[in-house]
Amino acid sequence: IKESKNKNRPYSAQDVFCNLQKQHGLGKTAVVKAMELLALEGKIKEKTYGKQKIYFADQAQFKDVNDADLKAMDCQISELIAEAQSLTQSCRQLDAELKELNSSLTTEEMMSEIQELKAECSEYRARLEKIKSATNHVTPEEKEKVYKERTVYVKEWKKRKRLASDMINAILEGYPKSKKEFLDEVGVETDEDCKVVVPSN
């Protein structure tokens, strides 16, 4: 009865049974009889909806609520809803921050990684010093000389390939067999046979 008055909401016998069963272990039959008895004594009201009975506190014991009070309660409800939404948002932000912190490295892990990186840097510095101290470096002049020689050799390669191709085509004009058979017969190996390509420059 006290809970019904405090919350001023309807309850079915099943609702009351579930609440009391958890707290006191009462059986459903006892709860139904008790609710019916309270209704007969006028301590609570009873209404039947189809096969179900609903029990609620006698509304006559509550004072009337005017429009101003209703508006005030509506305002309070709106404020509480807004506050709840704000708290929910704050909780989500805190959860996100906590998740980020949990996924971050600990101080010990950071110190360990720093030591590993320092060791790696030292290794690279040692390799760099070794390269700098080497005596077999190619000078810019030597590099330029090699590139010039390469250009000459590539140019000569293209020239000789063109001359050979012209000679072979001239012979093939009066040769009764195919080009492949001719090349096999005279023992000529082409760039394609050796899987090489003339550089473009």
From TrEMBL:
Pfam families registered for this protein in UniProt: LZ3wCH (PF18517), WHD_TBPIP (PF07106)
Domain Leucine zipper with capping helix, chain residue ranges per copy: 138-194
Domain Homologous-pairing protein 2 winged helix positions: 6-57
Predominant subcellular localization, coarse grouping: nucleus
GO MF: double-stranded DNA binding; recombinase activator activity
Keywords per UniProt: Coiled coil, DNA recombination, Meiosis, Nucleus
InterPro entries noted in UniProt: Hop2_WH_dom, LZ3wCH, WH-like_DNA-bd_sf
Family: Belongs to the HOP2 family.
Listed name of the protein: Homologous-pairing protein 2 homolog
